[in-house]
Recover the amino acids of this structure.
C-alpha cells in the first residue's frame, strides 16, 4: 500500500508541477518522465559526479532542527553527490525540489505521516545513518532542500539551493 501511495503521489506532483511551470522541455516519451520533468533537475549518474557536498541533519539544544550548511550553491550542469549524515536523535530526510514541489510534498506528508518515498531526489535516514543523493542540476534557479517529516520543516529543516547559470554551454 505504501508503494502505491508513493507512486500516486509522484504523479500528482509531476502533473501539478508541469501545469504550474508550463514546462515542456524534457521527459517526452520517457517512461520515467515524472522525474525527468522536475524543475530542479534529474537523477545523476555516479560515474558523472563532479563534486561531493556534505550535509549534516540534526536537532539543536534549543529545539530547532537544521541542515548544515543551511544554504547550497551549485552550477548548472553539475552532477553532485550529496553525502547526507543524520547526526540527530530523530529520523530525518533530505529532499531536493522547487518551492512548489516542497510545499505539495509537505502537505501530503502531513496528511499521510506514514508515507514513505524512495524517490531519487530524496534520502530518508534513521539517527546516526549516512546516505546519499546523486543529482544533476539541469536548470538554473532557486530551489530548496528540506525535511518533510511532519513538523520538521517548520522547526527549521529547510535551506535554499541556488543553481547558477553556467557560462560555458555544457
Ligand atoms: Cu527532519
Amino acid at each position: 500500500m505504501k508503494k502505491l501511495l508513493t507512486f500516486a503521489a509522484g504523479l500528482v506532483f509531476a502533473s501539478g508541477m508541469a501545469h504550474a511551470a508550463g514546462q515542456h522541455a524534457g521527459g517526452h516519451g520517457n517512461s520515467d518522465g515524472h522525474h525527468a520533468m522536475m524543475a530542479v533537475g534529474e537523477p545523476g549518474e555516479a560515474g558523472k559526479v563532479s563534486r561531493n557536498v556534505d550535509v549534516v541533519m540534526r536537532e539543536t539544544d534549543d529545539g530547532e532542527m537544521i541542515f548544515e550548511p543551511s544554504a547550497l550553491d551549485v552550477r548548472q550542469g553539475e552532477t553532485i553527490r550529496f553525502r547526507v549524515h543524520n547526526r540527530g536523535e530523530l529520523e530525518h530526510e533530505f529532499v531536493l525540489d522547487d518551492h512548489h514541489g516542497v510545499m505539495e510534498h509537505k502537505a501530503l506528508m502531513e496528511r499521510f505521516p506514514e508515507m514513505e518515498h524512495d524517490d531519487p531526489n530524496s534520502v530518508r535516514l534513521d539517527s546516526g545513518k549516512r546516505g546519499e543523493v546523486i543529482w544533476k542540476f539541469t536548470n538554473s534557479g532557486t530551489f530548496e532542500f528540506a525535511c518533510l517529516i511532519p513538523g520538521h520543516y517548520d522547526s527549521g529543516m529547510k535551506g535554499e539551493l541556488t543553481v547558477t547559470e553556467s557560462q560555458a554551454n555544457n
About this structure: The longest helix spans residues 2-21. Residues 1-33 have pLDDT under 50 and may be disordered. The radius of gyration is 15 Å.
